[in-house]
Amino acid sequence: MKERLQKIISASGICSRRAAEKLISEGKVLVNGTAASLGESADPETDEIMVEGKRLTLKDERTYIMLNKPRGFVTTLSDEKGRKTVAELVADCGKRVYPVGRLDLDSEGLLIFTDDGEFANALMHPKFEIKKTYETLVGGDAETALPVLRSAMEIDGYTIRPAEVEILGREEGKTLLSITIHEGRNRQVRKMCEKAFLRVHRLKRVCEGPLRLGELPLGKWRKLSQNEMKELRNVIFGSQTD
């Protein structure tokens, strides 16, 4: 399938898309022996693409999966304390994948895994401010806490942006909140609730960017669809995905 040359070169891991465009403009990219022009497309499976005298080869197919993490599992590949790890839950995916970001031991919900380091680093980069939504069951006066949770506050010396907070319902005297944050700092939602004098009884991440946990069973994983990956890349890279 034909794609723009700069996208093919970037996907191969040689350089960024902007750097690839520069190489094309400088005449350092050949397609089937002819100097390529900016905006040109090619098929990496059928066309010979040379970049600065070297034949381009694509990376192996990468893996992108979503896990519904249960409580009681640490977000790491191994644990010196012998605790259960999320790696155990995705061991049957066929690839050595790594968690993108974290969910603490007592939290559950949506957790992304991949073997694509560039993609993982981009997804976690603060400048993209990927929104994350948590269903949070709390004890305490939620009505009074709402203005506090919706305001800018300082967490570990860092001023976070105001969160989007809504009441979803009540369960046995507790309140179920939807809390959407932008930064995703360490135990951020728990620390926000503490500042608002709320006790967190359950914390589950249900959304990350365009991804939705949906009906994925607890402790199970699934591959991200092509459409989900396209939406994620659009959030991270914007127009650079064209």
Structure description:
- The protein is 22% helix and 31% strand.
- Helix 1 (5-12) packs across helix 2.
- The two termini are 14 Å apart.
- Strand 8 (98-100) and strand 9 (108-114) form a beta hairpin.
- The chain has 242 residues and is α+β, with helices and mostly antiparallel strands.
- The protein has helices at residues 5-12, 17-25, 117-124, 142-149, 188-195, 226-237; strands at residues 3-4, 29-31, 34-35, 41-42, 49-51, 54-55, 64-69, 98-100, 108-114, 132-139, 153-155, 158-160, 164-171, 174-181, 199-208, 211-212, 221-223.
- Strands 7, 8, 9, 10, 13, 14, 15, 16 and 17 form a 9-stranded mixed β-sheet that branches. It has a 4-stranded antiparallel β-sheet with strand order 3-2-5-6.
- The radius of gyration is 22 Å and the shape is elongated.
Write the layout of secondary structure elements.
Blueprint: E1 3-4, H1 5-12, H2 17-25, E2 29-31, E3 34-35, E4 41-42, E5 49-51, E6 54-55, E7 64-69, E8 98-100, E9 108-114, H3 117-124, E10 132-139, H4 142-149, E11 153-155, E12 158-160, E13 164-171, E14 174-181, H5 188-195, E15 199-208, E16 211-212, E17 221-223, H6 226-237
Parallel strand pairs: 9-15
Antiparallel strand pairs: 1-4, 2-3, 2-5, 5-6, 7-9, 7-17, 8-9, 10-14, 10-15, 11-12, 13-14, 15-16
Helix pairs in contact: 1-2
